[in-house]
Amino acid sequence: MPSFDVVCKPDPIEIRNAVDQASKEIANRFDFKGSDSRVELKDFELTLYADDDFKLGQVRDVLLAKLAKRQVDVRFLDLGGKPEKIGGDKLKLLVKVRNGIEQTLAKQIVQTVKDAKALKLTAGIQGDVVRVQGAKKDALQAGIALLRAQVKDVPLGFENFRD
Prior knowledge:
- 37% of the residues lie in helices and 28% in strands.
- The chain is of the alpha+beta class.
């Protein structure tokens, strides 16, 4: 039975390259001279450090620009966190990188596929992946188009397209 997997996977190599490029630019920019502004990457979590709110915003903007240049979708980042003080005037901002489909979004995807009864597709949650199955390849391609149109807040990828 033809099937495909709906995933949410960023490219960790491109994220690492973007962080490295952002760190180089921050180290060389005149307005960051003498400040403790930097970006660190650990697993799928970015930590931005700066001396004040303005510089933290600048560090974030540099990082977002480098991610955009490397074709990493910014929707992978969870930028909703609040900066926290880490001593003196220094600030730290944790930015999570989405990896895998969360349960609420997975349930929403399954419900979207079930609601499109004309396509005759079935969907099931398998860990952090949603598997969609159908009788025909054309129905699966229509399902991919449907999911791209319905889910806008998270960048979805489609893998393991099988006949």
